[in-house]
Amino acid sequence: MTTATTRRVKRLPLLGWSFIFTVYSLLGIGLIVLMTVSSALLVLTVGLPLVVGFAYSIRGYNDVYRLWAGHILGTSVIRPYRPIPKGNLFSRLRVIGSDPATYRDYAWLWINAILGFAISLVSLALFASTIFYGIMPGLVQIVPEGVLDLYLGPVEVSRTQNTLLYWVFALISFGLWWWLAPKMMVGYARLAAVMLGISERARLSLRVDALASSRAETVGTQAAELRRIERDLHDGAQARLVALGMSLGMAEEMLSNNPAVAQELLTEARQSTSLALSELRDLVRGIHPPVLSDRGLTGGIQALAIGSPLQVQVDVVLPARLPAPVESAAYFAVAEVLTNAAKHSGATEAWVRARHVRGSLSVLVGDDGRGGVVQDSAGGLHGIERRLNAFDGTMHISSPVGGPTIVSMELPCVPE
Amino acid sequence: MRVVLGEDLVLLREGLIRLLTAYDFEVVEAVDNGPSLLRALVTHRPDVAVVDVRMPPTFTDEGLRAAIEARRQLPGLPVLVLSQYVEQLYARELMSDRNGGVGYLLKDRVSQVSQFVEAIRRVAGGGTAMDPEVISQLLATKPEPLERLTPREREVLGLMAEGRSNAAIAGRLFISENAVGKHTNNIFSKLGLPPSEDDNRRVRAVIAYLDA
């Protein structure tokens, strides 16, 4: 996980985690023992269901570490397992047995039993000694004289010096805990991510697959878009300009001998330019709305809200202009969702909320309609999804029957 | 009538100067970018400004911003904005100071020369000239506060918003001027506009319309 960004780790929750993990890593030892024993039993057939069962348990057990490491590192640690077939136990065992992730899981149990336990314990111990030395002076007051006196070699230390020394110890262990606990835990989380996540190679190959399919889609969409633009220009503006030339040419001929007809033709020519212009305008809007270039996504969404037949509340706060392709994708996505809401949902009100958080643009569009949106492969919503895919974006629709419908979109991007 | 012109495309700028001069306007200065436009408007205080929305240096809505800023500094400065496309957002912003003397027209309306010139004169006189496309977009979308109007009244309001006089509206709708007056009064009362400042009520009706 080279791209993992470490979030600022809060120390107090870490303390809770170390407490849990001291116990939890011991549980892991139990799993090691059980697994080892049942593997030995494989020679007899009774071992078969046991091994498969424990393999599942180990996966579940390690899921806790995946979640935890993902939480600490601020990324998600992906489960690396090959899919297990639904068939009989033997074929399941074969898949489990041939999956390298199984062995990494098993290795993690060992590492965790030793290292995880140790780290958690050190962290706990440092914190405990802070508290212990912190309250020692008080303790000394309560217990009878002589019990808790401190000796430094042959020298007996006086009560006042005693108190000071305890507090020095408390400070030292607190300092150590403060400095060391997060480092150890983050390091430990990194190790867990490496051991329990998919390997870099597997991650890259998954990524390549995803990129290949999204590129194919993007290329396809682009080509279709270009064809549409070409057709619109050819049938619209170009044809109008030809008609315009004809009208003007005829007017030129008629000017001297039939001024009335010439004037009619000129009027016609002027109307033709108007139509050509309005067709070009629509075309430009479909390619890249001018308001989007002028005002960015914020202005674009405001304009959409004004243009929508629904009452649309706009709440868009963005740090700066986003890259133009992202603005455009998000704009058309919001436009499509609002159009859908106006056409099919029976809604009267809608809202759009957009923020840039943790490296991606997040847009939510909701309406008060009747819900029950189905996302089929031919619909406009699927078109949006494909558009977003090109940017590694995702879309999620929540639309229970009876409403409300909320469409959420995420687009990774860096503000300019 | 003194005009300041802001348009960055040479061809259009020269064309507009020729057109305006032919109709007895005096073009005191023609500029090709936002900052010079603002400066020119503030120094010349023209009777009317004719401004392109998109201009250098940013080639976005520089002209519109300059016009709005000029109107902030010189309240009531009549501005007619020309644009390749109409955007209700901009129409609203232009009218947001609730003062008359604004227009927002598509550039191709220039080709209907006499109507275009009439629109400039109307804006210079404190009236409005909204492009029919702004109006039709509004009619197509949000009728909310305008729901109380009858279809005929909406038609009248639409033409009023374009900036037409009662006589022109009567001519267009083939009804008597009296009937138009009745409709406009109904519109004013339905939109809650008291009859105190009679001159401005038309503009305020348009603003109510744009705010819809």
UniProtKB/TrEMBL annotation, chain A:
Keyword Protease in annotation: no
Domain Signal transduction histidine kinase subgroup 3 dimerisation and phosphoacceptor as annotated: residue spans: 225-292
Enzyme Commission designation: 2.7.13.3
Domain Putative sensor: 28-196
Catalytically driven reaction(s): ATP + protein L-histidine = ADP + protein N-phospho-L-histidine
A Pfam family per the record: HisKA_3
Keyword list, A-Z: ATP-binding, Kinase, Membrane, Nucleotide-binding, Phosphoprotein, Transferase, Transmembrane, Transmembrane helix, Two-component regulatory system
Entry's transmembrane regions: 12-34, 40-58, 109-135, 164-181
GO molecular function, one term: phosphorelay sensor kinase activity
Database matches in InterPro entries: HATPase_C_sf (IPR036890), Put_sensor_dom (IPR025828), Sensor_HK_TwoCompSys (IPR050482), Sig_transdc_His_kin_sub3_dim/P (IPR011712)
Domain of life: Bacteria
Top-level enzyme category: transferase
One GO CC annotation: membrane
PANTHER family: NITRATE/NITRITE SENSOR PROTEIN NARX-RELATED (PTHR24421), NITRATE_NITRITE SENSOR PROTEIN NARQ (PTHR24421:SF10)
Protein name (database record): histidine kinase
UniProtKB/TrEMBL annotation, chain B:
Modification 4-aspartylphosphate occurs at: D52
InterPro entries to which the protein is assigned, alphabetical: CheY-like_superfamily, NreC/VraR/RcsB-like_REC, Sig_transdc_resp-reg_receiver, Tscrpt_reg_LuxR_C, WalR-like
Signal peptide region: none
GO-annotated molecular function: DNA binding
Gene3D superfamilies linked: 3.40.50.2300
Keywords attached to this entry: DNA-binding, Phosphoprotein, Transcription, Transcription regulation
Domain Response regulatory: 2-122
Gene Ontology biological-process annotations: phosphorelay signal transduction system; regulation of DNA-templated transcription
Domain HTH luxR-type: 142-212
A Pfam family matched in the record: Response_reg
Domain of life: Bacteria
Name of the protein described by the UniProt record: Two component transcriptional regulator, LuxR family
